[in-house]
Amino acid sequence: MIRLAGLLFALIPGVVAAYSLTPQQIAPGVYMFEGKTEHFTRANKGDIANTGFLVTDDGVLVFDTGPSRSYGQSMRLAIGLVTDKPIHSVYISHHHPDHFLGNQAFEDVPIYALEHTIETIKRDGDAVTDSLYRLVGTPMAGTEPVAPGEVVSLGRQQVGGRDIELIAAGGHGGHGAADLMLLDHTSGVLFAGDLVFHQRAPTTPNADLDEWLQALEAIEALDFRVLVPGHGPSSRGPEPIKQTRDYLQWLEEHLRQAAAEGLDAAEVMYLDLPERFRGMGVLEAEYRRSVAHLYPEMERETLKAVGER
Amino acid sequence: MRVLIIGLVGLALLATGMAQAAAVEDPMRSPGWRIIEQRFFKDQTVVFDERVRVLAPASAEDTFAVPGFVQVDGIEDIERLLVVIDLNPIQKVLEMDINEAVQPSVGFRFKVQQRTPVRAAVQTADGTWYLGGVWVDAAGGGCTAPSTASANPDWAERMGEIEAALWQRDNGVQRLKTRLMHPMDTGLVDNIPAFYLETLELQNEKGDVLSTVSIESAMSENPVLSFDLATDGPVLLRGRDNQGNRFRATVTP
């Protein structure tokens, strides 16, 4: 089987660095590829986010396509080892580059996303792709941003005998409908995208914390049995939701407190972090990025207009 | 790009050649150090000292506005504080007077063009400079892309607006934080001339100058600055940009 996969890579032009992706079955016909709970590095080839797929009678539904063209191609090969059904369609959770840059490997099928995601990829796709080339290097070779071509229809729908629901929320990828989730009622698997992190510090470049916390309330109320977070291991219970909420609530209160005390942003970056978050991957780096994203606005609220003009 | 690489190789060779003659080795091993040394510390005594710390993220999230903070612990008789960025096209961020009323600590935001050391230097009464620093990684572009203000037709309406606040801290120290609306254009972008806040004076209630801060356009757009003052009572801010516009404000506790 391994040799077969190797042969297939040799036959696909432009494959420079294959990913060894192992599909984890999390429910009958439902699989995930688990990324590392790290930041982008050359060693991990950018494979830091979770992706997945659902096998239906009409073909395979893919949820997110990973950080590079090669990842998308590797995904397709790994899916082919599980089922001989063709790819039916692809759903992209949001516009961050670790989730959609494998789209090139799926250009022959419809790729669905929220309007916010499609517009943001069209606007920022080149810039985020450049930054991944810089961080990840060679495994990115040949990768170009492909914006999803289809706006997703939300709500409950039947696809190939599966009863799926596409749900929009916001707070992580941006305001309003910026994060797409897929709930498969047939198996009870929820692909939550980056609204939920597990054992890995959440990322906040486009975050609205209040909106995100509201989204987490709504997610907890959903009828799921297995939760696949955007980053970190899957879970049979709501633990990842609680963990994400705990961190985001702490982050907001902590930053507001620091702003109220008059601390400068760079000082805030070097404050001690609570022991209970120590087990999260990339905690310090993500926390410092969050200070850069969220603190300037909170800090500004503590200043008053004083000019005499 | 090729020019840049040759330039850096040349710079590295130059640095190696000169290192043999110079007494002080840069512990950060920066290819830009010899130029910084010539430009800012020529014929002066330089000591690399861990008591001078720059807090900044290891990687710039936004190359237009990277937070930095200088802390100095246990060095007496400091009279000047300087912040420089080795590998920026505009190297100096700010320079200010330090005295019994103004502590040697300052918070600021800077632009960064590539991976570079960010250094703080403090000069004591005997003329010695004490230096500390940190490397900041960056994808580039902070100095050679237009400010967002330049793209916004309303910027002139709001230019010069000042926001500020004072906080009482331990040991009678007062934290001043201020934000001034200014595009801080570097002059390195086509058809956008250099236009930046050049000096900011901090005065006490009576108008005595506590510190004069000279600023260059390596400082971010709409500068946000934090100072620690060993005074109580109101602080007067007096700013001037390189085109002669003046800005003033009174900050009350």
Cα end-to-end separation of chain B: 51 Å
Return Rg of chain A in Å.
20 Å
Question: Describe the biggest sheet of chain A?
Answer: 7 strands, mixed
CATH homologous superfamily descriptor of chain B: SoxY domain
Overall geometry of chain B comes to: globular
pLDDT averaged over residues of chain A: 93
DSSP strand tally of chain A:
13
Oligomeric composition of the shown chains: heterodimer
Considering residues with a beta carbon less than 8 A from a beta carbon on another chain, report the largest interface and each chain's count. Answer: A-B, 29 and 35 residues
Question: What's the SSE pattern of chain B?
Answer: HHEEEEEEEEHHEEEEEEE
Domain count of chain A, please report it. Answer: 1
The averaged pLDDT of chain B comes out at 89
Explain this structure:
The complex is a heterodimer of chains A (309) and B (253). Chain A has 309 residues and is of the alpha/beta class. Chain A has one domain (17-236): Ribonuclease Z/Hydroxyacylglutathione hydrolase-like (Metallo-beta-lactamase, Chain A). Mean pLDDT of chain A is 93; it is low at 1-16. Helix content of chain A is 35%, strand content 21%. The longest helix of chain A is centred in the middle third of the chain and has 22 residues, at 115-136. In chain A, the strands form two sheets. A seven-stranded mixed β-sheet of chain A has the order 1-2-3-4-5-6-7. Chain B has a nine-stranded mixed β-sheet, with no helix packed on it. In chain B, strands 2-3-6-13-10-9 form a six-stranded antiparallel β-sheet, with no helix packed on it. Helix content of chain B is 15%, strand content 40%. Chain B has helices at residues 2-21, 33-41, 148-151, 155-158; strands at residues 46-48, 52-55, 66-72, 78-85, 92-97, 102-110, 116-124, 129-136, 162-168, 174-180, 197-203, 209-215, 224-229, 235-241, 246-251. Chain A binds chain B through residues 130-131, 134, 205, 261-262, 264-267, 269-270, 285, 288-289, 291-293, 296, 299-300, 302-309, and chain B through 55-59, 61-62, 65-69, 107, 109, 139, 160-165, 167, 169, 175, 177-179, 224, 226, 237, 247-251.
